[in-house]
Amino acid sequence: MSLTRHLGRGRDLARTAGDHAADMFAPLTLIARGLRHHAEWTRSRWASTPKERRGPTLFLTAALALGVFLLPHGLLFALVALAASAAWAGRRPKAAPTAEPDTGDLKLAALYAALTPYLAGPDDISPLYSIDGHYKTAFSGWEFDADGRLAALEVAYPAYFTDTEPAARARIEQVVQGKAGRAREYRFDWDEESNRLRVTALAPLPTDIAAQPFVTAPGEIVLGFTDAQGSSRTIPVLQAGTTAQQPPVVWRVGPRSAEPHLLALGSAGSGTSTLLRSIALQALPYGDLVVIDGAGTGEHACLVNRPGVHTVETSLHGAVAALEWAAKETERRLGLLNAARHTGIAAPEDTTRPLWLLLDHPTELSELAQAENRPDPQDLLEIPLRHGRAARVTVVVAEDLEALDRLRPTVRATTRAKVVLGPAGADLGRAALGTALDITPAAHTPAGRGYARIGAAAPVRLQVPATVDPLDEDAPAQLRDAVIGLLPHRDTRTEAPAPSTPAALPDPAAAVASVTERAEEMVAELGADLAKDAKGVRSHPAR
Ligand SMILES: Nc1ncnc2c1ncn2[C@@H]1O[C@H](COP(=O)(O)OP(=O)(O)OP(=O)(O)O)[C@@H](O)[C@H]1O
């Protein structure tokens, strides 16, 4: 007989002996389990018995035990009864703890199943995603919030998934948002190098910040507020009666700004006019405004006749006149600034005072202009848009998202600060911001909610401060008062107001001539060798 057979027989014998022993000791095990159960029951009853009743209970038990003991064969009967009841109690298998269905487990399994059709490869030998697979093979980390909602998730995906294609990404993002809850926004961080996707649910942005003076440097405009990731600083703001630190989305304007003009797009009622009003209130203490309300809804009527507001136009005729003046004013400023730069003298004060052209729904006027065969207001914006940065002229255009195609290429190309408000589909959002969003918007967004992109930076979330129309009687009185408090009055201007009507401003050619004259005088004083430079000033026409 070979050694292997010996070993095999030995194993069989040992297994048989073990089985016999288990059978033999089974009743004892049963009784022991029952006794343990009885002991636990007794302990819990004792613990739940009030202290004052413990003495009598103990006394009654001892009396019963003594009675049983004194009975003929009482002890024997008691032991048999105890063993029988222990055997009965021990017979019942210990009730498995009723496992609460883990909702997190169910949610992750559902998400895994939903992702499988998009991420499974039919020819994959060891697939991360398969019909009978488990989510733990693909999900490497997850977090749930206090309400049991998915807060963060890290997902691995196969290398063959086309993660560079926006459409493929969008499909996965839609599935994740659908399963994790459409009421929230999610940030999708695609790590293409390691084939991992990190999903983070984003907390809603505060909607209770009203219009107020913001702590910023001149030339900085607070477009709204974002999350900590979207801003490098915080500013103090009055919020719900207290001062809180909030991260602002700041847009810098002026000659050193790489994004001197802004385009705000949004669906109807999403809050683009409110954003324009918020910008106007922040710009007014340091600059002058020309407002064109193309929709003619009178939403900017609160600015009429305010110091620093040249005009608020709602008609095509008025808009064309104001924009023609703005184009000439841009040229006048450029001419004076160029001349001042050549001669080394300080530029006249009225050339350095910021001028803001705020246009709400200009495409409506463009259509009207086309029908009436009049100059298109958008064409008149060309000079301020192209040369506004040097001339301290800033253009802000607010338009309906649907009218994006009706905006002139110059307007779209030169407005390098972008805002999109309200629900925008992935394609429209990308067209408006010039890049794909790595955040999927929530199904319902409050007014003034959207995304901002300053230049080539990544888009950030944005909530515009509640800057309601003070003439809107439906708006809360508190919010209206906040705006009224910020509207300038004659005695609250921080700087001398610029001429109140466009016609009152000096003629650009005359102004250039006067600076040239002053330059010539200086040149004469400084000597003959500077005379050449003086001729140079004359030969530079105002562009
Ligand atoms: N940031 C905000 N906070 C609170 N309410 C806002 C905000 N933005 C807009 N609203 C409110 O939403 C409504 C619509 O706002 P608004 O008129 O600015 O939208 P819009 O995009 O200009 O709409 P439309 O294009 O139809 O003119 C108004 O009642 C306004 O008070």
Description:
The protein is an alpha/beta fold. The protein folds into three domains: 103-202, no CATH class; 220-503, P-loop containing nucleotide triphosphate hydrolases (Rossmann fold); 508-539, no CATH class. It contains 16 helices and 17 strands. The chain has helices at 3-48, 51-70, 74-91, 103-119, 166-180, 272-283, 316-343, 349-352, 362-372, 377-380, 382-391, 409-414, 426-433, 477-486, 508-526, 531-539, and strands spanning 139-144, 150-156, 185-191, 196-202, 220-225, 235-239, 242-246, 248-252, 262-266, 288-293, 309-313, 355-360, 393-400, 417-421, 439-440, 449-454, 460-463. The chain has an eight-stranded mixed sheet, with helices on both faces. A five-stranded antiparallel sheet has the order 1-2-4-3-15, with helices on one face. Helix 1 (3-48) crosses helix 3 (74-91) and helix 7 (316-343) runs parallel beside helix 15 (508-526).
Give keywords.
single chain, 543 residues, alpha/beta, Rossmann fold, 3 domains, eight-stranded mixed β-sheet, 17 strands, elongated, disordered C terminus, nucleotide-binding, membrane, ATP-binding, FtsK_dom, FtsK/SpoIIIE domain-containing protein
